[in-house]
Fold this sequence. Notes:
alpha/beta
Amino acid sequence: MVTVVKHPLIQVKLAIMRDEKTKSKEFRESLDEIASLMCYEVFKDIGTHEIEEEYNTPTGVKLKKVKLDHKIVLAPILRAGIGMVDGVRNMIPTARIGHIGMYRDEETLVPHEYYFKLPKVENPLVVVVDPMLATGGSAIAAISAIKKRGYNNIRLMCLVGCPEGVEAVSKAYPDVDIYLASIDSHLNENGYIIPGLGDAGDRIFGTK
């Protein structure tokens, strides 16, 4: 399933991020805010349950505390995926964080794994986060690496994607739901999304 999260606040903040004049600070802030807003859709079907621990309301009513049915593990694809973590944790402070290191060969565009570590959690919902879904290669490689470690409940959360990347991931892993704030027009000859955001990693960390 592919879901495009359409909301006026997301569209306004996404326009800020697309502007080449936007500086790293404002770019990061907008990314945080969009990631938080997207959480309402990404996690809307996660069930909840009451636990035995109770609390008192200001009106003197005793109620049981409520928790999510699944423990959440965020798996950002390094390095740009780090930029979405805080936005999600603003909404789910208990989410645990893993890291998946991927680099893309600039000539072949093929991704290579150089680092992998996820928290040891039994049957979590693993959410792979990366601002861009371009060729889909990094996302597919990350999902493959996660599945090889025995995790099967996986979702992919990206900011901007394109038809080529969406099709590639959907074909490789039809069981992984994809969430995007926008599906842009296409990829150019260098593998960049058009109109896209440019190099998200460089813009997040101010390295260019």
